[in-house]
Amino acid sequence: MTAPSAASVPSVPSAPSATDVVLRLHDVHTYYGAIHALQGIEIEVRRGEIVTLIGANGAGKTTTLRTISGLLHPRAGTVEFEGKDVSQIPAHELVVRGIGHAPEGRRIFSRLTVYENLLMGGFTRTKAENEQQVAHVYELFPRLEERRAQKGGTLSGGEQQMLAIGRALMTRPSVLLLDEPSLGLAPILVQQIFKIIREINDRGMTILLVEQNALQALSIANRGYVLQTGECVLTGDARDLMVNETVRKAYLGED
């Protein structure tokens, strides 16, 4: 694969001011038992950005998202959201505070309908708020409206991914965490999912994206972080990372 030249890299919105940081990880160390999974991670996400985390399997990308969303708690360091330390806050409370998470593998409720899955995502909201947000999700994903009475387990892979993202949006989050949204999808569906991610961002949503398809992720992101064995080894503007020789060889498929 040939990496695009700087002139051919798709344009992305200008990054917000560095002072408008909505999410910050400072010297975060997260463990699975005795396994030191995150080793001093430093990440920040500014309001209105798309920031992507790229790296090989086992680099710590999913662990980073799980640490932010409260499914894991760091043993050292801090996770700050909207200027407050939320490192030890339970996951359900972080949902209420404004962190939405569409996990790897989609994890929808296979026996519930599309509509019921969306309502499960909106458990913190009133009935009126949920109906309004369901309409918003259907606007983003017309296919879900067509399938609203269909059981989640009978949807295609692409439809299930749309549902996972839609369910995360039901809480009206301030920050949306997306974990491998293109995993297992056909190329045409990958393009559709990334177009929708960009549209969600254009509407004002701040997004932290973990994605195996580094080229696609960097093409829509403002900035990126490269993770390797639990550490951030490189960070920068997405355009710069796309033409960085190390990134091209390691993650964009170049020899």
Keywords:
255 residues; alpha/beta; Rossmann fold; six-stranded mixed sheet; four-stranded antiparallel sheet; 10 helices; 35% helix; globular; disordered N terminus
Q: Could you explain the architecture of this structure?
A:
With 255 residues, the chain is α/β, with parallel strands linked by helices. Helices cover 35% and strands 25% of the residues. It is built from 10 helices and 10 strands. The protein has helices spanning 61-68, 91-97, 114-121, 127-140, 142-146, 157-169, 187-202, 214-220, 238-242, 245-251; strands spanning 21-32, 35-46, 50-54, 76-81, 84-85, 99-102, 175-179, 206-210, 223-228, 231-237. The strands form 2 sheets. Strands 6-7-8-3-9-10 form a 6-stranded mixed sheet, sandwiched between helices. The termini are close together.
Record the SSE blueprint:
Elements: E1 21-32, E2 35-46, E3 50-54, H1 61-68, E4 76-81, E5 84-85, H2 91-97, E6 99-102, H3 114-121, H4 127-140, H5 142-146, H6 157-169, E7 175-179, H7 187-202, E8 206-210, H8 214-220, E9 223-228, E10 231-237, H9 238-242, H10 245-251
Parallel strand pairs: 3-8, 3-9, 6-7, 7-8
Antiparallel strand pairs: 1-2, 1-4, 4-5, 9-10
Helix pairs in contact: 3-6
Short summary of the structure?
With 255 residues, the chain is α/β, with parallel strands linked by helices. It has a single domain, classed as Rossmann fold.
